[in-house]
């Protein structure tokens, strides 16, 4: 693909093959994830953890972490343990989100959800196990990075997962179900915390490990917040325009659960426009990085053009 952006890069045309980049990085992430979690006694819990962790998916979150580490002068190798941990935490959130007491979903990534295979009790414990192991993995497996940077990355990651981030967003999401008067501010709070906080941590943690400056971290945080919200808007659109087979999960769940979505507030056309605006703003934050930011630029564009 050819990327051009007259606003951000006025004098150059950049060539970047996103498909090849994503395929390469995904393969490296998959291999690292496979090796990260061997099965031992009690086998049932490790098998349940691996069932969801290795179920596929785009692996955008770990790929973003690798990309920002390289952008800031680091390497794939120094960021890979954190990239794996990010996917472990994301997987935990999906396992718990799918539980009957939460969103009550039967399918995820085209397969039966964890609790449908292993039962609710083991699914809860599998999520707990992945969450704890994620932090252990960053602390124990990161190489070539100073301890202060590792601690800073762990602290940022922990905040993104807790009540100030993912957990807080999920609470407001549950409280908002079935209420017809949810406004766009509340909806945005839900998604910037439930989805966006972890995605922002993916971007920031990779750069932290490489020693990025505070100014660069702020730029990358704004980039991540914009693409995170755009990602959720597109998710809302796809939930009502795609089939279960296309999505790999139950379609129309938001409508069934009487959840507020961006299309329900803005309509489909305006939702698409808002997502595109967020992506433009995200890419503008990357202008100072020049061609080194090409993977992040291409991923931002991919968010609004994906079909699942």
Automatic annotation (TrEMBL):
E.C. numbers: 2.5.1.1
Gene Ontology CC entries for this record: cytoplasm
Catalysis performed (reactions): isopentenyl diphosphate + dimethylallyl diphosphate = (2E)-geranyl diphosphate + diphosphate
Requisite cofactors: Mg(2+)
Annotated pathway: Isoprenoid biosynthesis; geranyl diphosphate biosynthesis; geranyl diphosphate from dimethylallyl diphosphate and isopentenyl diphosphate: step 1/1
GO biological process: terpenoid biosynthetic process
Organism: Oxynema aestuarii AP17
This protein's UniProt keywords: Isoprene biosynthesis, Magnesium, Metal-binding, Transferase
Cross-referenced SUPFAM superfamilies: Terpenoid synthases
GO molecular function, one term: metal ion binding
Protein name listed in UniProt: dimethylallyltranstransferase
Stored InterPro entries: GGPPSyn_CRT-like, Isoprenoid_synthase_dom_sf, Polyprenyl_synt, Polyprenyl_synt_CS, Prenyl_diphosphate_synthase
Pfam hit, one: polyprenyl_synt
Similarity comment text for this entry: Belongs to the FPP/GGPP synthase family.
PROSITE patterns: POLYPRENYL_SYNTHASE_1, POLYPRENYL_SYNTHASE_2
Enzyme class, UniProt record, top EC level: transferase
């Amino acid at each position: 693909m050819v990327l051009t952006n007259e606003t951000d890069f006025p004098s150059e045309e950049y060539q970047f093959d996103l498909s090849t980049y994503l395929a390469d990085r995904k393969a490296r992430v998959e291999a690292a994830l496979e090796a990260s979690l061997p099965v031992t006694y009690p086998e049932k819990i490790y098998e349940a953890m691996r069932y969801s962790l290795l179920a596929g998916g785009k692996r955008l979150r770990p790929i973003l972490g690798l990309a920002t580490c390289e952008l800031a002068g680091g390497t794939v190798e120094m960021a890979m343990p954190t990239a794996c941990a990010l996917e472990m935490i994301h997987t935990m959130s999906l396992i718990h989100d799918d539980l009957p007491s939460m969103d009550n979903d039967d399918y995820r990534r085209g397969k039966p959800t964890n609790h449908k295979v292993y039962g609710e009790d083991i699914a809860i414990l599998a999520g707990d196990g992945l969450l704890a192991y994620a932090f252990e993995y960053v602390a124990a497996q990161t190489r070539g990075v100073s301890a202060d940077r590792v601690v800073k990355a762990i602290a940022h990651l922990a905040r993104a997962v807790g009540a100030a981030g993912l957990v807080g967003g999920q609470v407001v999401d549950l409280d908002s179900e079935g209420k017809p008067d949810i406004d766009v501010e509340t909806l945005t709070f839900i998604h910037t915390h439930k989805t966006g906080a972890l995605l922002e941590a993916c971007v920031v943690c990779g750069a932290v490990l490489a020693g990025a400056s505070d100014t660069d971290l702020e730029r990358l945080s704004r980039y991540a917040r914009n693409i995170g919200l755009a990602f959720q808007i597109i998710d809302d659109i796809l939930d009502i325009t795609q089939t279960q087979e296309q999505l790999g999960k139950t379609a129309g769940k938001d409508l069934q659960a009487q959840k507020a979505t961006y299309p329900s507030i803005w309509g489909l056309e305006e939702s698409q426009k808002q997502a595109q605006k967020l992506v433009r703003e995200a890419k503008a934050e990357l202008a100072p990085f020049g061609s080194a930011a090409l993977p992040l630029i291409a991923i931002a564009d991919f968010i609004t053009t994906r079909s699942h």
